[in-house]
Write a structure and sequence with these properties.
- The complex is a heterodimer of chains A (106) and B (280).
- With 106 residues, chain A is an all-beta fold.
- Chain A has a single domain, classed as Sandwich (Immunoglobulin-like), CATH 2.60.40.10.
- In chain A, the strands form two sheets. A four-stranded mixed sheet of chain A has the order 5-2-1-8, with no helix packed on it. In chain A, strands 4-3-6-7 form a four-stranded antiparallel sheet, with no helix packed on it.
- In chain A, β1 and β2 form a beta hairpin.
- The N and C termini of chain A lie far apart (35 Å).
- Chain B is mainly alpha-helical and 280 residues long.
- Chain B has one domain: Cytochrome Bc1 Complex, Chain D, domain 2 (Orthogonal Bundle), CATH 1.10.760.
- Chain B contains eleven helices and eleven strands.
- A three-stranded mixed sheet of chain B has the order 9-8-11. In chain B, strands 1-2 form a two-stranded antiparallel ribbon. Chain B has a two-stranded antiparallel sheet with strand order 3-4.
- In chain B, β1 and β2 form a beta hairpin.
- Chain B is globular and about 50 Å long.
- The termini of chain B are far apart.
- The chains are: A mainly beta (106), B mainly alpha (280).
- Chains A and B meet through β2 and β5 of A and α3 of B.
């Protein structure tokens, strides 16, 4: 199985936490062909969720119109320093990935 | 008659507009930036701040650096000296190319890492050189390693040790390579990169002989190119320059490339390295 590293940063400024998640993923649309002319099967993230201390705070539904190795930026309120942020994703082939970090001062 | 006057007026106006448009494009003084460049810079800064996928390759490179690998099952962090001591990566990138007595050569970061992989870990050079640069769904291990090492020098100043006579000699060779005219178009690097204010289509061409020009050519490497989603090193950039110049492709990790990198990086000495780049 391929490995899909994730890099996450969660920076708290005031009462807003800015989260950046860089996800390693091919995000194949299913429309491209390889050198031999065969169609490359689609593989893309369908659901990306973010948890704050185990509680889901965001869920996003993605499709093929997102680039390879996508970068996600979002802001949440109510997180405190040291809180645990977990990012999970599932793609259309059933592959899963996740990464976690703790909130640090921004 | 009325119509004719109107036409003439319109013509005069368009001609004026055309000459007004020509002016700024033709004469962007050296050191100043036109609107296109500024927009590209804004875009790059935004991408760098929001998150650069190059960091994924940095993560991968860190794993490679610290793990015991290769036929000899040795970790680079326990065996590879990038100039500041075995395993020291912080600040190493901005102080290369430098002279390595154990190899008897001046080496840039990628060349040194490849040397370590061959000498310390037991990989075969020919295997590493077969596909040395990233392509579709493929990133060479040395590219990830260079990315990791380079990222540890972010926000540090370039300090190529030019006082070292070995480095100085290679620098002078680099200067000659940059001025060497050959190939079907009888080009040298300096044909396009040796004077201020030159452009190819919409892109400004840096003058590599000036600190500012050299800086803009060394910043942003290694970099993540969004077209194709690939991670590319400065070695790749140099090889591709030869291709664009219609020169024969230089050998991977060769003296010529190190000489070019020495010339350019040393010209940028004293300026800040901003870390991993992102390109369109």
């Amino acid at each position: 199985m391929a490995s899909y590293p994730i890099r996450i940063r969660a920076l708290l400024k005031g009462d807003v936490t800015s989260i950046t998640a860089i996800v390693s993923h091919p995000m194949e649309t299913g429309l491209r062909k390889d050198d031999a002319g065969k169609t490359i099967p689609p593989q893309y993230i369908q659901v990306l969720t973010v948890e704050l201390n185990g509680k889901k705070v965001m869920e996003s539904h993605l499709n093929t119109a997102v680039s390879t190795n996508p970068v996600f930026n979002f802001k949440i309120k109510g997180a405190k320093l040291g809180d645990k942020i977990v990012v999970n994703w599932v793609d259309n082939t059933g592959e899963k990935g996740s990464g976690e970090t703790t909130v640090i001062p921004g | 008659m009325k119509y004719r006057i109107a036409m003439a007026a319109i013509l005069a106006l368009t001609m004026q507009a055309a000459s007004a448009q020509d002016k700024p494009a033709a004469a962007v003084p050296a050191g100043q930036k036109d609107a296109t460049t500024l927009e590209f810079e804004k875009f790059r800064t935004q991408m760098e701040q929001e998150g650069n996928p190059a960091e994924l390759f940095e993560l991968q490179g860190e794993e490679f650096w610290k793990a015991k690998r290769g036929p000899k099952n040795v970790a680079l962090t326990a065996s590879c000296d990038l100039g500041l001591g075995v395993g020291v990566v912080k600040g190493a990138y901005v102080q290369m190319p430098r002279y390595f007595a154990d190899a008897g050569k001046v080496m840039d970061a990628e060349r040194r890492i490849v040397w370590c992989m061959v000498e310390k870990q037991g990989y075969k050079f020919d295997d590493l050189a077969r596909r040395p640069f990233a392509g579709d769904n493929y990133t060479p291990e040395q590219t990830s390693l260079v990315t990791y090492v380079a990222a540890q020098s972010a926000n540090m100043k370039f300090a190529v040790p030019l006082k070292d006579p070995h480095v100085r000699e290679v620098y002078e060779i680099g200067k000659e390579v940059v001025a060497y005219r050959a190939g079907p178009y009888d080009f040298s690097c300096n044909t396009c990169h040796g004077a201020d204010g030159k452009r190819i289509r919409m892109q400004n061409l840096p003058n590599l002989g000036t600190p500012q020009g050299a800086l803009s050519a060394v910043l942003g490497w290694p970099g993540y190119r969004m077209t194709g989603s690939v991670m590319l090193t400065h070695q790749w950039r140099m090889s591709d320059c030869f291709r664009q110049q219609r020169f024969p492709q230089p050998k991977y990790a060769s003296d010529t490339i190190t000489a070019l990198l020495t010339y350019m990086t040393a010209n940028a000495n004293g300026h800040m390295y901003k870390g991993l780049g992102i390109k369109r």
